[in-house]
């Protein structure tokens, strides 16, 4: 028995022919049967060769390279894109597929021809009734957008660069839908939002993620790639992205004396002029190596799995946070590492006095961005007051990001001056009386943020 085409078995009957039987018709039957058998074996061997040559499918290539945040599915998020953004997406994906495969070009040409055919057919069909014409025009526009979305969905499957469709929430209850790919930083996404919202481009504007389950929030740093942390969200996550103004985003450069002269009295710190502040910034950020604030003090640590907080003496270093064990001194040899900064991000909290019976409302935590639910790998800390929380949170940011944070600040200041110049120029232009000027309502922070 041998497997033939289609996987069906072929059964061959072998006949024993006496040696004395030399009839030519019997010999012909055997030759024909043997030839047929050789043909089937050759066909089977060729099938096995083709199967062996077929490349294995890489599971990583089958993963969906494009997803959305804030929408039920990708199709819904594409519908929310503005027409110009959708056109840009289709054009971008079309250029990528043209470089990779000719089939995409053929499909795009076919779709373009179909659209042109629809336009040509719709042109002479202008009804006499204005209402009918408006309905027909609206239907045509909907069909055109549906064709674009269909083409975009097909191109997204071919794209090698991960793209993300994000719904960004505003303080007035509205939202903006933007397309982000894995190569774009938070600063570049902010530039997009400045254009869409017509705001002044102040350096305090930030993108903030919230996690309702953990009751935490975090402002993304300008140099981060937005797609990377959002990819850690679960499929049915209730996390959200806000476009907010965070006054403490670059407080370490506006008021560096708070972090590098924190041991002095507040009255002395408030009397420092602008020139002295600039000297402090240059001294601690402008040299060959970053100088981390020598911050130390008592914080409350939450025990794992319990709603119990115990005071510990913590010390900040460039590599991480250290604490003094019970019965030990504050010398460097007795310090024990609490956590390092390479794999964790810092988050502010909301209502932890109620949730975890924290001593105060001024709490923060350190965790890996991939951890989205409660875990013993999360480090919970609590401060006595808001000023102490401000010192620790931003000093940790300085230690973690180093000179990159200063570079972000310099770039933000430069871009803010440009945006403010454009904003002032537009404010002097006379507005169209039939069209209201674009307005923007500064959104409040989504929670009680102290970062």
Report on the structure:
It is a single chain. By secondary structure, this protein is α+β, with helices and mostly antiparallel strands. The protein has 3 domains: 69-158, no CATH class; 167-249 and 406-425, Ubiquitin-like (UB roll) (Roll), CATH 3.10.20; 251-402, PH-domain like, CATH 2.30.29.30. Helix content is 43%, strand content 17%. The chain contains 15 helices and 15 strands. Strands 3, 4, 5, 6, 7, 8, 9, 10, 11, 12, 13, 14 and 15 form a 13-stranded mixed β-sheet that branches. α4 packs antiparallel against α5 (102-122) and α4 (83-100) packs parallel to α6 (130-158). It is globular, with a radius of gyration of 33 Å. The termini are far apart.
Features:
alpha+beta; 17% strand; PH-domain like; disordered N terminus; 3 domains; 15 strands; 451 residues; Ubiquitin-like (UB roll); two-stranded antiparallel sheet; 15 helices
State the end-to-end distance: 76 Å
| Domain module tally | 3
CATH superfamily of the largest domain: Pleckstrin-homology domain (PH domain)/Phosphotyrosine-binding domain (PTB)
Would you identify the regions where 5 or more consecutive residues have pLDDT less than 50? 1-24, 47-65, 100-127, 433-443
Mean pLDDT: 75
Q: Gyration radius, to the nearest Å?
A: 33 Å
**DSSP strand content:** 15-25%
Tally of helical runs: 15
Largest sheet: 13 strands, mixed
CATH architecture type of the largest domain: Roll
């Amino acid at each position: 028995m041998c497997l033939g085409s289609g996987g069906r078995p072929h059964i061959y009957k072998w006949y024993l022919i006496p040696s004395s039987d030399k009839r030519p018709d019997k010999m012909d039957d055997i030759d024909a049967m043997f030839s047929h058998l050789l043909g089937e074996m050759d066909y089977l061997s060729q099938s096995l060769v083709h199967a062996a040559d077929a490349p294995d499918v890489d599971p990583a290539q089958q993963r969906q390279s494009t997803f959305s945040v804030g929408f039920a599915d990708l199709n819904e998020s594409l519908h929310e894109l503005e027409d110009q953004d959708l056109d840009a997406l289709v054009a971008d994906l079309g250029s990528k597929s043209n470089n990779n495969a000719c089939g995409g070009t053929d499909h795009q040409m076919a779709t373009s021809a179909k659209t042109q055919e629809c336009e040509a057919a719709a042109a002479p069909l202008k009804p006499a009734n204005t209402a009918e014409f408006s309905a027909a025009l609206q239907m045509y526009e909907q069909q055109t957008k549906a064709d674009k979305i269909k083409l975009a969905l097909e191109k997204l499957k071919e794209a090698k660069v991960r793209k993300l469709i994000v719904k960004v929430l505003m303080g007035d209850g509205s939202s903006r839908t933007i397309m982000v790919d894995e190569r774009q930083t938070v600063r570049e996404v902010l530039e997009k939002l400045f254009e869409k919202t017509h705001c002044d481009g102040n350096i305090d504007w930030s993108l903030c993620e919230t996690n309702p389950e953990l009751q935490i929030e975090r402002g993304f740093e300008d140099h981060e790639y937005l797609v990377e942390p959002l990819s850690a969200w679960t499929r049915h996550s209730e996390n959200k992205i806000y476009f907010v103004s965070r006054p403490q985003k670059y407080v370490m450069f506006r008021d560096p004396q708070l972090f590098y002269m924190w041991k002095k009295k507040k009255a002395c710190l408030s009397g420092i002029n602008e020139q002295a502040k600039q000297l402090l910034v240059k001294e601690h950020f402008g040299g060959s190596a970053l100088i981390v604030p020598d911050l130390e003090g008592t914080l409350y640590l939450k025990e794992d799995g319990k709603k119990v907080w115990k005071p510990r003496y913590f010390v900040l270093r460039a590599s991480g946070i250290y604490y003094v064990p019970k019965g030990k001194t504050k010398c460097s040899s007795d310090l024990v590492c609490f956590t390092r900064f390479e794999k964790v991000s810092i988050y502010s909290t909301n209502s932890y006095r109620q949730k975890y019976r924290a001593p105060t409302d001024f709490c923060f935590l350190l965790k890996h961005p991939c951890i989205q639910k409660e875990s013993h790998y999360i480090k919970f800390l609590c401060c006595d007051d808001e000023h102490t929380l401000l010192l620790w949170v931003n000093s940790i940011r300085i230690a973690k990001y180093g000179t990159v944070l200063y570079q972000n600040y310099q770039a933000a200041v430069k871009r803010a001056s440009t945006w403010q110049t454009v904003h002032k120029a537009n404010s002097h232009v006379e507005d169209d009386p039939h069209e209201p000027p674009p307005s923007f309502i500064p959104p409040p922070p989504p929670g009680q943020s102290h970062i």
